[in-house]
Amino acid sequence: MIYCVEDDNSIRELMVYTLKAGGIEAEGFTDSVPFWAAMKLKKPELIILDIMLPGEDGLSILNRLKSSPITEDIPVILATARGTEYDKVMGLDKGADDYLAKPFGMMEMVSRVKAVLRRTGKKQTERILTCGDISMDIGRHIVNVGRSEIILTLKEFDLLKLFLENPMQVFTRDQLLSIVWGTDYMGETRTVDVHIGTLRTKLGEAGSVIKTVRGVGYRLDQEAAEG
To answer: Does the model's pTM come out above 0.85?
Structure first.
């Protein structure tokens, strides 16, 4: 799935149509609001992001993506106005993988998408995170405890991924809400407790590595798993 964030309706529709015609699943968004809503439901393989957007601009969106452990590995191609070297440099410095200078041809867009996916795909699909009996294949979105596959919801998967990537680090409930649910999520911290509870239950005995830090939040105790 490719997400295209572009406020010009004709350009966005043509981008999505071209990608789909080439056998690549794609979805378009006019600005950051529907984009972040979609990100909570499904994470894409790549994002094409226009810099000049109403409301939250592309560089701000890019910064949020690269600042979160949940989304930092998603490759991003920035669409910039031709001749705006400053935007290109800023975007690349903030972690963009490539850029398209407007106006760009649709075939150039498809070529750059495929090139970025080739460069980043192997790194992403080969990432395996482990802790004791728990193993997570990020690219295949599979979690195993021993030899048994565990079926997790998207939020449970994202919580476990965050813990596995940051063993021994304590996360407050507010931090977990911000990272996993998004900074604009209006729910209560009780949501975190409920998801931690279901995650532990699904992991069985292995779930005991997710420790409650009383009065603070949660952490993954890698030392307990290895002991």
So the answer is: no
Q: What residue has token string 């969106």?
A: 61
Would you call 78 helix, strand, or coil by DSSP?
strand
Locate 8 and state its tokens.
């010009």
Asked if pLDDT for residue 123 goes beyond 60, the answer is no
Both 93 and 201 in a single domain? no
Q: Is there a single domain that holds both residue 106 and residue 133?
A: no
Long-range contact list for 11-17, CB < 8 A, 24+ apart?
14/106, 15/48, 15/106, 15/109
| Domain boundary residue, one of 95, 125, 155 | 125
Q: Which of 125, 145, 161 is the last residue of a domain?
A: 125
CA 199 to CA 104: how far, in whole Å? 45
Q: Tell me phi and psi for residue 215, to 5 degrees.
A: 80, 0
Q: Which amino acid is at 197?
A: G
At 83, the pLDDT band (50, 70, 90 cuts) reads: low
Q: How far apart are CA 97 and CA 121, in angstroms?
A: 12
